[in-house]
Design a protein that fits this description.
The complex is a heterodimer of chains A (111) and B (113).
Chain A: E1 4-5, E2 10-14, E3 19-25, E4 32-38, E5 45-51, E6 56-59, E7 62-67, E8 72-77, E9 86-93, E10 99-101, E11 105-110
Parallel strand pairs in A: 2-11
Antiparallel strand pairs in A: 1-3, 3-8, 4-5, 4-9, 6-7, 7-8, 9-10, 9-11
Chain B: E1 4-7, E2 10-13, E3 19-25, E4 31-38, E5 42-51, E6 54-57, E7 65-66, E8 76-78, E9 87-94, E10 103-104, E11 108-112
Parallel strand pairs in B: 2-11
Antiparallel strand pairs in B: 1-3, 3-8, 4-5, 4-9, 5-6, 7-8, 9-10, 9-11
The chains are: A mainly beta (111), B mainly beta (113).
Amino acid sequence: DQQVKQNSPSLSVQEGRISILNCDYTNSMFDYFLWYKKYPAEGPTFLISISSIKDKNEDGRFTVFLNKSAKHLSLHIVPSQPGDSAVYFCAASFTGNQFYFGTGTSLTVIP
Amino acid sequence: EAQVTQNPRYLITVTGKKLTVTCSQNMNHEYMSWYRQDPGLGLRQIYYSMNVEVTDKGDVPEGYKVSRKEKRNFPLILESPSPNQTSLYFCASSFTRTGSGYTFGSGTRLTVV
């Protein structure tokens, strides 16, 4: 049973516009959330994280929003750049050791 | 260069033939973990280790073994591989429990025929 879900397998956005990637989770015990980015033939790379005591975390062009009541988090990329084209995974944890990943969303930024 | 190194990158093997995928990190990280990536299922955690001689099961540990005899190495062992273990495997390491600093290896593409 998938505890972390990314319901959009793919997303296309024009360069310069905002990309919004969504993630839903089912386990209310999750207290730490992360986003990873993955290029083909490479391992995932850490992008940004948020703990459950916050509802927003920013790092440059990337912002993660957490809505605990809706069990929903989103990643905003503004402005989107062609180099952002990759697969994005969200992940969640409640022990700090065991992580649950979503199935990924493939983002294409069109120049 | 700080990195997680997995070997081999590609492996084709036959059912039942024991194999080991090696993982080594040069960052003195305490936490290490193995994942498999399958289409439509994302990344699933197989095993993780919090330190030398401390390991625990992740989400999908069946058919796998690990060991952590040294801090830098965390090999994944398939004693009797089966076709359903055909997958893309990633090793990762981190200083922190929360995984915010997880560094992943480049992956091992395993095919079991």
